[in-house]
Amino acid sequence: PRGDVAALAARLRRLVDEPDLLPRLRAGIRPVRTIGKEVDELETLYARLVSHTSGASDARPAAVTLGSPA
């Protein structure tokens, strides 16, 4: 529980007492996604979406407004 110092101490003591526990816990952690991986996936998605919609006959450009309304 948040703010429970005794519980934190017990968990840390368990890590010390059970040396095989930390590697098992680490094995369950998913790798951190890098910004490069995110960019690559977004570029692939955008390219696929653009190529999919570029052949549509009823496709129209979206209205874009720049600046603040007067």
What does this entry look like structurally?
The protein has 70 residues and is an all-alpha fold. The protein has a domain at 5-49. It has helices at residues 5-17, 21-27, 35-53. The model has no long low-confidence stretch (mean pLDDT 86).
List keywords for this structure.
70 residues; mainly alpha; 3 helices; 56% helix
Largest sheet: none
As a whole number of angstroms, the C-alpha radius of gyration is: 25 Å
The helix/strand series, from N terminus to C terminus, equals: HHH
- Contiguous low-pLDDT stretches (5 residues minimum) are none
Kindly state the number of beta strands. 0
- Structural class, by secondary structure, is mainly alpha
Q: Percent range for helical residues?
A: 55-70%
Overall geometric form: elongated
Q: Roughly what is the average pLDDT, rounded to an integer?
A: 86
Beta-strand fraction estimate = under 5%
Distance between the termini: 52 Å
Question: What is the count of helical runs?
Answer: 3
